[in-house]
Amino acid sequence: MECVFGLVGNDYAIVVADTSAVHSILVHKSNEDKIMVLDSHKLVAASGEPGDRVQFTEYIQKNVALYQFRNGIPLTTAAAANFTRGELATALRKQNPYQVNVLMAGYDKEIGPSLYYIDYIATLHKVDRGAFGYGSYFCLAMMDRHYHSGMTVEEAIDLVDKCILEIRSRLVVAPPNFVIKIVDKDGAREYAWRESVKPDATA
Amino acid sequence: MARYDRAITVFSPDGHLFQVEYALEAVRKGNAAVGVRGTDTVVLGVEKKSAAKLQDSRSVRKIVNLDNHIALACAGLKADARVLINRARIECQSHRLTVEDPVTVEYITRYIAGLQQKYTQSGGVRPFGLSTLIIGFDPYTGVPSLYQTDPSGTFSAWKANATGRNSNSIREFLEKNYKETHGQETIKLAIRALLEVVESGGKNIEVAVMTKDQGLRQLEEAEIDAIVAEIEAEKAAAEAAKKGPARDA
To answer: Which Gene Ontology BP annotations are present (chain B) (predicted)?
Structure first.
């Protein structure tokens, strides 16, 4: 099952997502990137209904870009998170709501890093650490045990690896591969992959 | 003639749409704007009327970007411009969302021109009173382009063009002096063209440069002043060269 989790450090935020695209018992691909770079300093890790996930995050991304062109200044992470929640809330009581859970991580110059937990029924929480999916049972427990404020990037990645290890060993249908992305003052970028099954071994 | 210039949807007997022509008049009264295309750079320059002392000049930006690789300057009714620019910005993002590709310069020009044309064929509306100069780079081939639209909704590509006040003089200058340039030379050519009709000085012109890699960059007043000084020096040198030999002979 899909696993998405993230945490905030002193001057960075990290989000991790599994990279399996699954349909019933078939794994379509195991290198699906579920963490979208929303703009230069924001990341959106999304899990849920595959069509909705892509459709919704791209829609948010284009509207965030439009805001920047109209106003000459990027949205803050808080504003983007609230906008996202608003869109989920509006669609919720219409014909078909988006079935997407989102962890939005961002870095703002004056505020620093932040992480927002937004679930599919438009709950919004600003958090230090958050997780979605079956993996959340294990990730939240691991993060509660090992997380402390002011962790360095290395310590945080170590904690991420601990979480991934728990997921791999304790979840019955554990996804094999994960992608880790980080956002800090220098922007949002991919940090690393954790692969236990190399996709496209024949390619 | 008076009977045929009220409604936009009425042709005059000799085939004119007077409202559209009057809109072009509004453009001719607007501030001068010039665009020059180089091999790796495209430049837009706009005349800035002297800023009122109490006005915050940063809030009056005449050259705007529609997307990372497209920019627009215009001459005419600025309030109409806001509407067109907003619609174009939305279209740029909408295009990216539906086809996962940035717009080409031609596409967005055609879109803006199409909008302007729509308002020449409806009842109860008036045309947009502005002509636009649109610059940008093709997102895949990296080829620079410059396009112009006008209130009638026609558009075409140009190597260099001007619109607004005294655009004829600027265009004449460009026709005489245009050559393929790149980088700083393109910027100089645009400023030289604009200086034909505008009082020289960094605070009277707004210049923006677009390159493939760095997108749109607005030039600072100091930079513009420096280039203007260079141009004046070159002009003075050319004058001196003309006069010098004649005196010796």
So the answer is: ubiquitin-dependent protein catabolic process
In angstroms, the Cα distances linking A154 to A10, A14, A150, A160, B123 are 12, 11, 11, 10, 66
| A58 contacts in chain B (CB < 8 Å) | 97
Contacts of B89 in chain A (CB under 8 A): 66, 69-70
Q: Which fold has domain A3-194?
A: Glutamine Phosphoribosylpyrophosphate, subunit 1, domain 1 (3.60.20)
When scoring A57, A68, A69, A87 by the number of chain B Cβ atoms within 10 A, the one with the most, hence best to mutate, is A69
- SS3 for A117? strand
Report the distance separating Cα A111 and Cα A74, nearest Å.
14
For B95, the closest chain A residue by CA position comes to A62
pLDDT of residue B248: 53
Spatial CB neighbours of A77, under 8 Å, sequence gap ≥ 6: A41, A42, A104, A105, A106, A107, A108, A111, A114, A116
The number of angstroms, rounded, from the C-alpha of A121 to the middle of its chain's C-alpha atoms is: 17
Question: Considering CB atoms only, which of A58, A70, A72 is closest to B97?
Answer: A58
Q: Is B224 helix (H, G, I), strand (E, B) or coil?
A: helix
The question of ipTM being above 0.90 is answered as: no
- Per-residue model confidence (pLDDT) at position A203: 42
What is the C-alpha to C-alpha distance for residues B186 and B183, in angstroms, rounded to an integer?
Answer: 6
Digit-coded pLDDT (tens) for B164-202: 999 999 999 999 999 999 999 999 999 999 999 988 777
Please state, in angstroms and as integers, the Cα–Cα distance from residue A120 to each residue in A5, A96, B175, following that order: 15, 12, 60
Give the CA dihedral A142, A143, A147, A153, nearest 10 degrees.
Answer: 100
- Longest CA span, chain A: 48
Q: Do A69 and B96 touch (CB under 8 A)?
A: no
**CA-based nearest residue to A44, from A150, A141, A191, A183:** A183
**Which residues in chain B are closer than 8 Å to A59, comparing Cβ atoms?**
97
Four-residue CA torsion sign, A141, A145, A149, A155: negative
- DSSP-derived 3-state class of residue A159: helix
| Nearest CB partner across the interface for A62, out of B61, B86, B96 | B96
A69/B97 CB distance under 8 A: no
